[in-house]
Input
Amino acid sequence: MKALSQKRRHPLAAIALLLMGLLLTGGLYAVATTVNQAKAETTTYSASDTEEGKKLFEANCATCHGMGASGTKDGPSLVGVGAAAVDFQVGTGRMPMQMNGPQAQKKPLQFNEDQTHQLSAYVASLGAGPAIPEEHLLDEKGDAAEGGELFRVNCAMCHNAAAAGGALTRGKFAPALADVSGKHIYEAMATGPQNMPVFNDANISPEGKRNIVTFLKKIEANGSPGGADLGSLGPVSEGLFVWVAGLGVIIAFTIWLTSRSS
Amino acid sequence: MSASSTADAPFVAKTKVGRFTDFVDERVGGSGILREFGRKVFPDHWSFMFGEVALYSFVILLMSGTFLTFFFDPSMAETHYQGSYTPLYNVEMSVAYNSSLNISFDVRGGLFFRQVHHWAALLFVASLGVHMLRVFFTGAFRKPREMNWVVGGVLLILAMAAGFTGYSLPDDLLSGNGLRIIDGVIKSIPVIGTYISFFLFGGEFPGTAIIGRLYVLHILLVPALILLMIVIHLFMVVVHKHTQYPGPGRNDGNVVGYPLGPVYAAKAGGFFFIVFGVVALMAAAFTINPIWNYGPYDPSPVSAGTQPDWYIGFVDGALRLMPGVVNDFHFEYVVFGHTLTLNVLLPALVPAGIIFTVLFTYPWIERWITKDNREHHVLDRPRNAPTRTAIGVAGFTWYCVMWAAAGSDLIATHFHVALNDVTYWLRALFFIGPVIAFVVTKRVALALQRKDREIALHGRETGRIVRLPHGEFIEVHAPLDDYKQYKLVGFESPAPLPAEPNEHGVVTRKEKRRAALSKWFFEDRVAPATPAEVEAAHGHGHHEAIEGADQKSLSH
Output
């Protein structure tokens, strides 16, 4: 101990301390960021999947994402985004991107299930990343109430409490979540597509994500107990409705009531 | 009845029912009241019925609200939901929200009544607003009805207060967000803001007192004040009698219409059920304020698409339009260690302040400008008061810009435009929209007046083209019947009133200002066709139709 305290004024002490600090934070960061990958790559991809995926990638994606998915000025590198990102972006039709804009829009699928699987396999082979969620996480049998709380705290500020979607800045938007499959919802949380933040497994546990999916599917299946939901858009659509339909019908009645006499 | 009840021979009814009613009548004087009110004449026009719609909506609100009080518990104590809506099962929430959910899912007819109450509230304020617009644009606020106009304005504010206090009661996420905004606005008031906020919420927001306090305001104080104002309002309607649209035989000394009893009373009673029916239909088929979607209030989450009900929307819109920083100019200062946030204070209070100040003082402003001290019981057609109509439309446009801003996020998502662009455009319209609306409205009103004058002078176009012997084609104009003709010529078109000296023979500066405003108010005017002009034009037309030959002046 004495030797250590004597060496604290050594010219290299500061450097040693710096190195220790960097190693510690770097190590912690590495642990934190690999939380998502703890269960990565449980889906097995055959070598031919990866091979076919590579061909598809080079023909359809490399223009923007570069050969070997290393990225160009038009598209980011895909090394380490994982199979989940590919499955979400390609599986919802967002990729290949229709045009440059504030964010990629949904459109009819360009690749079938097998091709999407092959592309996922190829990108997953480039570096570890979030994998496609396992079946048991998508069984929609979690705790809906718990999922609802997580949704309100983490998602509702952009997606609306009833998951009807909402506006973001400069033409970006958070889409409505009705009709989105549980798998894609899960993958979106895990990978943070477009302007969405990543909710990794340390942030919302796989069980929490399962609950959120359960909640969303439950309110979707529940429908609207109070009658037509007017888009679940809140007071704006209600106000519009009372002015146009409510007052409109009443004006029609007032005209009818006063039409005979004058 | 009255003929038989002479002093020497007391009237005795023949039947049992007759004797009973006579007994009551002798003690409460019902027949006198009925005679007076039953003969009250009301003119018939659809636009006169919005006040009635508001009144009926209020009655519906009282009835449905009473039902809701049986089941609502305004406590903010914490509980865990055990009701039948599973997506919220066992979630921690306030007793108030819990009871609102129980009303929605576990009380028979509860959800229906909640929706009746809420739809009726929206309709109440909407019909009140439309009623006020009708009164403004037809000039019904003029002497002797200025004070009743003010009572109406107070009713509008009370209606907004009733709506807002009610909106906050379920203690769901949406209403809590609304309260948070109100709390922010209150705290932005210099010096006293924080004290008011702490007083209102019983400590730091949200506290545990606010729902109970709002509940007392919502079910006791505000409705009592509304009822009082309605009584004053209707009493003044009876005293002033109802206004009427211009027409043959109608003047400021009479009211042409139907007596209240029996047909009108029956119609009005039936109309109540129509309004109730429309509200009930909306409540049955369309959901409103689905509180189960929003979850319990918690100060941390905010949902996208969080807006107030429509009548508070313009304040929310103004808040959304206010920039935080313009280039390097900040709107937030620290004065003596206290923060002064003008970017909350200005948009929250100034536009609403301007709107209500102008609304309350407008009858006196116009009266001062026009020096018109006569009683008016015959309404103006909006086109015949172009400047007033233009002022009204400009104000309404201003309101609508702020109103639209409250839905800026939904405009952005539904029309696929950028939220920032929507805000920029609405900011521009906030300043230039009213100006454009004023100019356009005034020009449209004047153009309509010119069209009226043209029709009054030359009759309506029949579409019948006649070829004259010398080859010219003319369209035959048919004269209007006297009733329609009266509508087009029977109005006042005041000329600007120049500055006049006062009793000391001095033209004051104030009077000069008034004269300048009078010029602005009346300088663009289309005078109604005088009988002489009509006569001349008709003679001309007659001449033209019969003879038609070799006259240079034929073509117009």
Summary: Chain B touches chain A through 73 residues (CB under 8 Å). Residues 80 and 222 of chain B are 32 Å apart (CA to CA).
